[in-house]
Structures are given as C-alpha cells and as structure tokens.
Design goal:
208 residues, mainly beta, Leucine-rich repeat, LRR (right-handed beta-alpha superhelix), 9-stranded parallel sheet
C-alpha cells in the first residue's frame, strides 16, 4: 500500500477506494494525497487511524465503516471541509472533542460501536442534518444536542438512554426521531408541542 501511494502522491487524485482488501493499517504517506475529496476504507481490519489523515484538508466524504477501530485521532478535527463521516460497525468507545471542529459536517453515522457518551462539542456541528448513534452504550445525550438546529434525523435506538435533555425541543427541523426508551412526560410534551416538523417518531426496543 505504501508503494502505491508513493506512486500516486504527485497526482491530483480526488477519489480513493481501498475497501475490502484486508487492510491492517493506513500508511503515513496517505497524508500526501491532499487533493482527495472522497475516501472509502470500509470493510477492512483497521484498529486505528493514522494522525496524518488530518492533512487531507479537501476531504468531503470519509467512510471507515466495518473495521475494528477503537478510537479516532484528534487530527480528525482538521478535516474542516468534511460533509459525510461514516464510522458504523466498529469498536469506537469515544469521539474526540475535536469532532466539533467539523463545521461543514452534514451526516455523522456512528451506528453499532461502543460509545459511552457523546462529547459536548457535538453541539458545534451546526450544519448537521443526520446523526445516527444507534446501537451503542449511551445512557444520556449532551445538552448541547439542542444546538443542532438543522438536524432532520436523530437515531438513538438500542442504547440505554434515560436522560434526554429538554434542549431537544430546539430541533425544530427534526423529521425523524428514533428513541431507545419511552421518554418522560416532560419530553413527550416537548416533542408534541415544539417539534412541529416531526413525521416519524419511533421507540425501538433495546433488545438486540
């Protein structure tokens, strides 16, 4: 893999698909591919992501699904042009605070990981329209979730969330809301009275 990247690093490569090739690590030289706008590294054997990925300042789409990733590097926050980040089916236990620097992010998918909590900085993702954190180990959502005023889909199924903040009432563009537990009467009233654009509300069993 290192040799291939060395051969192409001086080219204006926009798309790189290295999915499903039993890749164990991303070579450091990937940081040289600064013209990349889309990377698919899904369906491999990665356990970590090289810090140099933060050099890819033109990246717009990053797919890391179906690996064995435990954590993301802080440098992920350098990808300020990123609009789509897919992290589903990994072993990620936390997201770095720097995730909040992804100011252009529209879609964040972290379905089927081992997240214990979401960072408060998630509330900085003001352009986010879709957030899928289903099938994790979350017990609460941060109050800052209420800052995501452009959110249209929020999926929290198959967690054990017992604390939904009242700030959820700020998500006035929300169309699809999937919960893992029956919300409290207070939250039910907020959903009924404030989320006027809601089209789908589902409470999905925790049983996996």
């Amino acid at each position: 893999m290192e040799e291939i990247i060395d051969d192409i690093k001086n080219h204006n490569l926009n798309v790189l698909d290295i999915s499903d090739i039993v890749l164990n690590e991303i070579p450091e030289s990937i940081g040289y591919l600064i013209s990349l706008e889309k990377i698919n590294i899904s369906k491999n054997e990665l356990t970590n992501i090289n810090e140099n990925i933060g050099n890819l300042s033109n990246l717009r789409q990053l797919n890391l699904c179906q690996n064995k990733i435990i954590a993301l590097p802080k440098s992920i926050g350098n990808l300020s042009n990123l609009t789509n980040l897919k992290l589903c089916h990994n072993k990620i236990t936390y997201l770095p605070e720097s995730i909040g620097n992804l100011s252009n992010l529209i879609e964040l998918t972290v379905f089927d990981n081992e997240l214990i909590e979401l960072p408060d900085s998630i509330g900085n993702l003001l352009k986010l329209e879709s957030l899928d954190v289903g099938m994790n180990n979350l017990v609460r959502l941060p109050d800052s979730i209420g800052n995501l005023v452009n959110l249209e889909l929020l999926d929290t199924v198959r967690n054990n969330i017992i604390d939904i903040p009242t700030s959820i009432g700020n998500l006035i563009k929300l169309k699809n809301l999937f919960l893992s537990n029956e919300p409290s009467e207070e939250i039910k009233n907020i959903i009924t009275n404030k989320l006027n654009n809601l089209q789908i509300l589902e409470v999905v069993s925790n049983i996996i």
